[in-house]
Amino acid sequence: HCISSVYKAGVLIARSYYGAARSTDQADDGSVPVRTVDLRSDTVTKPGPAMRRAMAKAEVGDDVYGEDPTVNELQRQAAQLFGMEDALFVPSGTMSNLIAVMSHCRERGEEIILGEKSHLHIYEQGGSAQCAGVHSCTVRNNPDGTFNLEEVESKIRHGYPDSHYPRTRLIGVENTHNIQGGRVLPLAFLKELRGLADRYDLAVHMDGARLMNAAVALSVHPSEILQHCDSVSVCLSKGLGAPVGCLLGGPREFVQRAVRARKVLGGGMRQAGILAAAGILALNNMVGRLKDDHRNAKTFARALLQADSPLCCVDLSTVETNILRFRVQQPGLTPQEFCTRMEAVTPGEVESLGQGVRVLMFPHVEGSVRAVWHLDVSEEDTELAIRKLNYITHKYR
């Protein structure tokens, strides 16, 4: 996510994904040992040796012609995992969500109802309107990522083909919910939503970028969650550790329409088996270990509260998966400054801790800080991040 960096007066200035500058003291000769704990996102994971070997050995063909055997196998496994008829390999989660909207809403001027804090609504450039001509109608997200179904029902348009209004076609949910801190949607909520959608002949799409985190947290098979949905997008490039890709699952006819939408969006890849091989390994080998990320996030959350005079506050009951959202509660210390202090490496820190520890986080929505655990952040890394937190707390006091 680092866009550019320049050295100025011995200090590294880095431009982050959100456009904010961060400063890090760093010895010019590189003699100071520094360990970086990157908690910005689970998208920063890198493929390990086994995944790289699988990619190098992948059997490939032309996927646009449906002839790449590795892609076909990935899609077959995904459909089986989701409990759906078919699946499609897509370059990114943003494209996958857009394809889902285009495939459910077949005419311009139709409408999707979704949460006001959903990734699809906030972080995907309004692609549903920009590219698909589909209107978004939002409802208020609850702290756990759900929304009030009575409010949803009140937003459903009636009287089609009345020329004044769009036609409601689709309801979108997000699981786990990114902005709300990796919250897992309760199965009871999804069951009620399914009943509402059926009453009005609407489809339900799940942005399941971190669906596997939700399944691990609930100790259920992914298909148990997805039985209440018509389609799902599942990212391979987050906690599952693949370098690229997302899987879009749904009924066979839906996926056939999705193939057309993928093509017009430029997502038709050729010898994509090289990437699909990483996806197969991710699905088969990387799901079980997500519980380690959840445990490490909880460990750090507890440490936030255990300092003698904690700078930050967090509700432990909301830490359900690998995403941690917490607030800086100290007057005069902004989330940006807290993140800058956690990243900066100072001589005093090296003397106190025996090494430099650079912890990367983001200031997040509503004055919070977000930290995300993943396969490249070990239990040892988490302990180092806690030591850095305690050092910063002590120095600030």
TrEMBL record:
Transmembrane segments: none
Domain Aromatic amino acid beta-eliminating lyase/threonine aldolase: 38-310
Co-factor requirement: pyridoxal 5'-phosphate
Superkingdom per UniProt: Eukaryota
Keyword annotations from UniProtKB, A to Z: Pyridoxal phosphate
Family: Belongs to the threonine aldolase family.
PANTHER family the UniProt entry points to: L-THREONINE ALDOLASE (PTHR48097:SF9), L-THREONINE ALDOLASE-RELATED (PTHR48097)
Protein name in the entry: THA2 aldolase
Native organism: Polyodon spathula
The organism's taxonomic lineage, starting at the top: Eukaryota, Metazoa, Chordata, Craniata, Vertebrata
Gene that encodes the chain: Tha2
